[in-house]
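Figure 2 data, in text form.
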Amino acid sequence: MTTPPDFTTNPLGHVCLSFDFDGPSLWMMRKMTTAGPVSRGEFGAVAVPRILKLLAKRDIASTFFIPGHTIETYPDVCRMAVDAGVEIGLHGYAHEMNALQSLDEERAAFSRSFELIDKLTGAPPVGYRAPAGDMTSQTIGLLLEHDVLYDSSLMGDDYRPYRVRIGDELPQEDAMVFGEESPLIELPWSWTNDDYPYLEFVAFKRMIMPGLGRPEDMFANFMGDVEWMIREVSAGVLTLVFHPQVIGRGHRLLALERFIDEVADRGCSFSSMRDVATAVADGVDFGAEQ
């Protein structure tokens, strides 16, 4: 790996805008396949061109994590994302929960998605985000088998990329035993930096996720994390997670646009996750607290 020639480490920090283009697969995973929930997933295909237009206007690098099912269902929209120059990363085949899959099931879904992205983009994917952040040791093994450069499913840090461990042990009556670091680079995320719990209303059988908050309140939280990074961290990396079917409504896109402009005014850089991970692999340090 070599650091991209146009990639410059910014001491004020890097914001990675990532978009999980789930389409109907999110609702399939939940077995909510009546017309109503599926139509919510369909809206993601309406929203993606709007998001790409916004990013292009401001010449912002971004990363889209796309399930294989979405690539097969919306090939033209996914091709539009590739043509716009965004990075495409792995996100399962049909948003499967990894912990509920056997190794053979997970490998089959992973390989199918890997091949679909390779065919779509002309290059093998280098990044992965587990559906719902459902990462397992089995998943880590598959990522290493396929020479995937980075993952963005774990929450062990906030502004500092780190190496994913393998072989952790958690005995019931003793201290945790940490495994060895693997070559896999982690670009951490958090539910606090994800649009879904703030904005999306979902009525489950046993609970209601209220969502439907003001996007301005969500972006105020995001901006607080940006401000702390600028003040306290050298060359930090903040990963933000959006879903086209959530963020793609008009008033929310206006709030996203204002947030992007505010981040740019503060002097932070917008970087693809691939570029950050490649720099990490080349020995660049990110996220040192001052």
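Caption note: The chain has a mean pLDDT of 95.
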